[in-house]
């Protein structure tokens, strides 16, 4: 389509638009703006190809500008920075967006840095836990400072919002993630399988905790299998997780599988989903499994209370507590009545994540013009 067929342009700065949680949310937001008649431009700065798209009618209308270099932008962030800055400046100049959504403070800061005059058009959606030990304090400080001129902020949980200055809080709203799946699937949770959907990352996702806890469960219930759907960023990360699995007695019952698009249909009857992260923004995998009526176990990451209620619609254990996690898994495995109760409550409690309600709030805050008064 020619540019003059659109009244307005929306630009999305994201890490990816792939099968991971952040990527799927980013693509969902982009598609929503297409339905509102916007020309949509997406810069997935961590990706070098856009072939992860389904290429359906909505996605054909999304302009994708991927990373042009040969080296991996995830593994070589300092080398990638000049290219990111150039990409953002070039595409803002070319498309002159009316609204910009940056996924994370860092991407919002980059946009405000290269095009200060566009700061009043930028909304930042923070997807990370601000207190994560993995976050560089200097980068966090610089990002926050550059973001003071930005129009508005969207946080996923109240915990995230409270971690920032009053100046930023006063320009922010709390909007949870939207459910992007059909949650009318009938889940029977009668298969002797447990699973997680997670990047193969030991620092955040703490799959070592999950594997060791399952090894203890296996001593009592050797008929159970644990399936881990996810990819590693590097071969070293993948090998490290394999080494942990091979050190357990349950090694033949633990499988690492590639992410698949129909994963919820495949796992709908599994006995339970387990999230073992030390920190999260808001886990899309957890939210989706919760809404489907799959029994869920989660660590007590900061902000989890905005999604789950322990012993009411799920089980929550203290992060890194392998014994406590083992006991939660045993409870899920051995107590049919409890599983029925928490999944029924989960189906009721997930209504606040309705995609139409959530996306209308996103659209309102992103497109609202800055109040210069």
Task: Please provide a written account of the structure.
By secondary structure, the chain is an alpha/beta fold. The protein contains 14 helices and 13 strands. A seven-stranded parallel beta sheet has the order 3-2-1-4-5-6-7, with helices on both faces. Strands 10-9-8-11-12-13 form a six-stranded parallel beta sheet, with helices on both faces.
Instruction: Give the overall average pLDDT.
Output: 87
Major sheet attributes? 7 strands, parallel
The proportion of residues in beta strands is 15-25%
Shape designation: globular
Summing up helix and strand content along with how strands pair, one would put the structural category as alpha/beta
What does the secondary structure layout of this molecule look like, with pairings?
Layout (H helix, E strand, L loop, with lengths): L8 E6 L6 H15 L3 E6 L12 H4 L1 E3 L12 H19 L3 E5 L1 H10 L7 E5 L10 H10 L5 E4 L2 H5 L3 H4 L2 E3 L16 E7 L9 H14 L4 E5 L5 H12 L7 E4 L5 H5 L2 E6 L8 H9 L3 E4 L15 E3 L4 H13 L1 H14 L5 H13 L6
Parallel strand pairs: 1-2, 1-4, 2-3, 4-5, 5-6, 6-7, 8-9, 8-11, 9-10, 11-12, 12-13
Helix pairs in contact: 4-5, 8-12
């Amino acid at each position: 389509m020619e540019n003059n067929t659109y009244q307005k342009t929306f630009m999305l700065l994201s890490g990816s638009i792939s099968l991971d949680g952040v990527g799927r949310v980013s693509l969902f937001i982009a598609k929503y703006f297409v339905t509102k008649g916007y020309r949509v431009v997406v810069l997935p700065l961590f990706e070098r190809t856009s072939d992860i798209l389904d290429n359906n009618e909505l996605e054909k209308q999304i302009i994708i500008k991927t990373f042009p270099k040969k080296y991996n932008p995830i593994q070589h962030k300092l080398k990638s920075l000049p290219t990111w800055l150039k990409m953002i400046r070039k595409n803002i100049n070319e498309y002159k967006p009316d609204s910009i959504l940056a996924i994370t403070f860092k991407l919002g800061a980059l946009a405000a840095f290269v095009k200060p005059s566009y700061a009043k058009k930028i909304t930042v959606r923070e997807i990370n836990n601000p207190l994560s030990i993995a976050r560089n304090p200097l980068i966090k400080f610089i990002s926050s400072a550059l973001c003071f001129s930005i129009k508005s902020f969207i946080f996923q949980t109240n915990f995230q919002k409270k971690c920032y200055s009053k100046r930023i809080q006063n320009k922010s709203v709390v909007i949870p993630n939207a459910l992007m799946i059909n949650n009318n699937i009938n889940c029977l949770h009668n298969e002797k399988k447990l699973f997680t959907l997670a990047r193969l990352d030991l620092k955040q996702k703490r799959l070592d905790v999950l594997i060791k806890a399952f090894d203890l469960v296996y001593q009592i219930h050797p008929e159970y299998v644990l399936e881990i759907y996810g990819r590693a960023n590097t071969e070293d990360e993948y090998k490290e997780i394999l080494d942990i699995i091979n050190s357990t007695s349950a090694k033949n019952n633990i499988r690492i599988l590639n992410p698949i698009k129909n994963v919820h249909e495949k796992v709908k009857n599994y006995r339970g989903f387990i999230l073992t992260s030390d920190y999260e923004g808001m886990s899309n995998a957890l939210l989706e499994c919760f809404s489907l009526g799959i029994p869920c176990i989660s660590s007590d990451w900061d902000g989890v209370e905005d999604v789950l209620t322990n012993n009411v619609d799920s089980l929550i254990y203290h992060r890194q507590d392998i014994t406590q996690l083992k006991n939660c898994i045993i409870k899920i495995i051995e107590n049919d009545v409890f599983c029925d109760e928490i999944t029924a409550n989960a189906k009721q409690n997930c209504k606040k994540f309705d995609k139409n309600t959530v996306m209308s709030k996103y659209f309102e805050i992103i497109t609202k013009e800055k109040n210069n008064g």
